[in-house]
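Long-time lurker. I teach an intro course on protein structure, and each term I like to show students one example going from raw sequence to a predicted 3D structure in token notation. This year I'd like something fresh instead of my usual example. Would anyone be willing to generate the tokens for the chain below so I can use it in lecture? Attribution to the forum is fine with me.
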Amino acid sequence: MRREREIVAGGAGAGGLRRIAIQGERGSNSHMAALEMLGAVEVVPYSVSAEVVDAVLMRRVDAAVLPIENSLHGSVAEHYDLLLAHPVRIDGESLLRIRHNLIAAPGVKIEEIRNVLSHPVALSQCRRFLGEFQQAKQVPFYDTAGSVKHLMEEGLRDTAGIAPELAAREYGAQVLVAGIEDHAQNFTRFHLLRRSADPRPDPQPDPRPDPQSESLSGR
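-- Reply from a regular --
Happy to contribute to a lecture. Here you go:
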């Protein structure tokens, strides 16, 4: 059975990592992955992935978290290209289960929704729900969490976004319907990126007991 989250990193603030760049808005899956890997850090959003890597190289941030592959849609070729083209290294990874939620402004009822905004990939991963939700038009948007940010900033009462639950908390919205994704086996692998020249973090102690010690103690 596949584990829902697989995390390999140094823990909260590991190696002095405090400012972490992501592609997309706060409240996105990249934001969630950063929190899973590093705990309480400052997440700095960028609109373009190349800007994320540039922020790392120019030391505007300490590290970056980028999605590298999805179990349904395959590899993110642009991000592999960025890894090969720039002096960055992979210091950790997280395997995150992707959950999509229908999110609207507080007090809005589901029967009021006439438009559903989200990233095209998220819309495609919720076809079953959206196919039955005939009252609303699907509107492609630049970002999942960005759709929630937009509807809250504009005070839209006839519009919902599809995004992680974190986006609802981040922007003060409400989840109308949770877990509307088509496939439970929807996972994205994220990489934690640092400058190649940065000192490597100290190795973390292995929490598992030493087999030799166990053997000796049992004699």
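Some talking points for your students: The CA atoms of residues 149 and 171 lie 6 Å apart. The longest strand covers residues 88-97.
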